[in-house]
Amino acid sequence: MSGSRSLQRMMKIAYLGGEYSFSHLAVLEAVGQSFESLRVNSIAAVFEEVNSKHADIGVVPLENSPTDGRVADTLEMFIRLPHIRVCSEIRLRVHHHLLANCDQPENPAHLQQGQRV
Prior knowledge:
By secondary structure, the chain is an alpha/beta fold.
């Protein structure tokens, strides 16, 4: 799909965060490499780029961790700019791994008390 899109005008996509942020990975999953990045620092800024027509589309999180996540910002922007609509969904499976530079505990049982989110 990415190759056929490159024959047309390069699509501008606004997303939250920098290169290889979760939003950037979702864009790569959906459209491949053939797009112009508009990296922004907030969910509201993604909507502003689309609203001002600086971006053709925007990618924002709609679902996140049930315990934390700023999905409320996304929903609020859909209310503030009702003419901007969801046109597609990208599912991105996210895994986190804990790394540390410390001595290994004698009894690692406390590590198994962590919460799976």
